[in-house]
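Sat 14:20. Reprocessing the chain from the morning session after the first attempt stalled halfway. Input below, unchanged.
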Amino acid sequence: MIKTVTSSLELEDLLKTKGDLALIVSGNQCSIASLELGNLISRIQEDNLPIYQADIFQVPRLISLFDLEPTVSTFLQFRGGQVILKKEV
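Finished this time. Tokens:
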């Protein structure tokens, strides 16, 4: 199940408490249905990592913070609170 991150404080707290998680960032919330993203989500679910989707209002800040391309969906995987995978789909 994909949960939603609705604030920067919530994301900071998740990274501190969980450390290992996946985050989907997309300016177009409909675009998360792509096949490539679906495959990434399946792989992450096999690893039992929690998956979150950034709330549309958090996207501009996350684009700036993680140097993301604003016109595509991005999959971020964190380990120990640090980005270990950044995949634009």
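Residues 15 and 63 are 17 Å apart (CA to CA).
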